[in-house]
Design goal:
14% strand, 3 domains, Rossmann fold, 437 residues, alpha/beta, six-stranded parallel sheet
Length: 437
């Protein structure tokens, strides 16, 4: 089976590599010539565990190829996945210009039947727009060629994307024809031989499923952060509360970890896009508006704790940040709490020393040289007046506290992910502050 994936970002590259891994002949397409040339040489533009090895293996086997020309492959494949970016526009909605441009290119060049599948996260109704654009281009050419559109939203977790794709708990597919359903069943069956769970539905429902899933997870995060903030005020321990409610099988423990807010490319964008879609249809998403507001406020919680500790006297203080990416096992800093913290600290006159195992270069592109990029986590705390744990990378779990105590000017820890024990840190001579206690 031959397919094309348009877009070699996070979703497109993972999707292409994983399909190639099970024997599909995949051509990944991108308009960025430099990125395509780098991929041909085995240079991977993103950090994802296991992805580089998989790409190199399938390029060598000639199952995975890269090109800048969608026109050259349109008639050589049965399925074209659109995995191009849908960045938020000024009012919070998803910018569909790249999605529709892919559809336009397909309509201008196709001569045989093709199934066009939207893989990007797009608002409800996007598939209908894709269909209309393709048909418009066919009408301009005066030709009658059959085609189908489908929606196949991704549910990949950054840092665990390969495993998620190769062993999915479900695959959601929105179709409107039997032919499209058969093609998608054939394509996904190798992944699901032991537990064949492709959930077919109509296209608008598939498009909504992706947004609803991310909105629910974002809601759980904002909910527990709201509870954590109240716990601090009333003298409760949010970790005990989380264990108490998480033991209820109706609730469960997943995504009920207090912290400093969610970030990344999905939750912030998708929550805002769903709010906007509702507004366009005359409905007010009151719960999601609160979810978004709580999350934005939560990103400043560590700064407020720090400011209170120093009685507002932050000017000239040296602050160490451990972790920059929005979560572990990725170099993604989009909407990361670290960016909010850095801006607030700089505005308060602080000097900042940062360290992250993989996200330093991404941060440098965003933040520039306004902060000091340390060699390792111990270098980051050198002469620091406080350390903030921002991202819970594994290497931060068991540091040498005596070394850190000796290196810091003022031994105070602000734990934004609640990974340390207060009693242990205090025994080591540190002042310790976390979330929800």
């Amino acid at each position: 089976m031959k397919i094309a994936i348009v877009g070699t970002g996070y979703v497109g590259l993972v999707t292409g590599a994983c399909f190639a891994e099970i024997g599909v002949e995949v051509t990944c397409v991108d308009t960025d010539k430099d990125k395509i040339e780098s991929l041909k040489k085995g240079v991977i533009p993103i950090y994802e565990n296991g992805l580089e090895e998989m790409v190199l293996r399938n390029v060598k086997a000639n199952r995975l190829n890269f090109t800048t020309s969608l026109e050259s492959v349109t008639d050589k494949v049965e399925v074209i996945f659109s995995a191009v970016g849908t960045p938020p526009d000024e009012d919070g909605g998803a910018d569909l210009r790249y999605v529709l441009e892919v559809a336009r290119t397909i309509g201008r060049n196709m001569t045989n039947y093709v199934l066009v599948v939207t893989k990007s996260t797009v608002p409800v109704g996007t598939a209908a727009k894709v269909r209309a654009v393709i048909q418009e281009e066919l009408d301009k050419r005066g030709v009658h060629i059959g085609f189908d559109v489908a929606s196949n939203p991704e549910f990949l977790k950054e840092g665990n994307a390969i495993s998620d794709f190769m062993s999915p708990d479900r695959v959601v597919v929105g179709v409107e024809s039997e032919r499209a359903e058969k093609l998608m069943s054939r394509l996904y069956k190798p992944f699901l031989l032991n537990n064949f769970r492709v959930i077919f539905m109509d296209i608008p429902s598939a498009e909504m499923t992706k947004y609803a899933a991310n909105a629910m997870l974002a809601t759980r995060i904002s909910f527990i952060n709201d509870i954590a903030n109240l716990c601090e005020l009333v003298g409760a321990d949010v970790n005990m509360v989380r264990n108490g409610i998480g033991s209820d099988t109706r609730i469960g423990r997943k995504f009920l970890y207090p912290g400093i807010g969610y970030g990344g490319s999905c939750f912030p964008k998708d929550v805002k896009a769903l709010i906007r879609t509702a507004g366009q249809n005359g409905y007010d998403m009151r719960v999601l508006k609160a979810v978004d507001e709580v999350n934005e406020d939560q990103k400043s919680v560590l700064f407020h704790k720090l400011n209170k500790y120093f009685n507002g006297g932050l000017k000239g203080k040296t602050i160490a940040l451990w972790g920059l990416s929005f979560k572990p096992e990725t170099d993604d800093i989009r909407e990361a709490p670290s960016l909010v913290l850095i801006d607030k600290l700089l505005n308060a006159g602080c000097k900042i020393r940062v360290y992250d195992p993989v996200a330093m270069e991404e941060s440098r592109r965003k933040t520039g040289d306004r902060v000091h990029y340390a060699r390792d986590m111990y270098d980051a705390v050198l002469n620091a007046d406080a350390m903030m744990l921002v991202t819970e990378w594994k290497e931060f779990r068991l540091p040498s506290w005596p070394v850190i105590r000796k290196a810091m000017s003022d031994p105070v820890i602000f734990d934004g992910r609640n990974i340390y024990e207060k009693k242990e840190l205090e025994e080591q001579g540190f002042a310790y502050y976390c979330i929800g206690k």
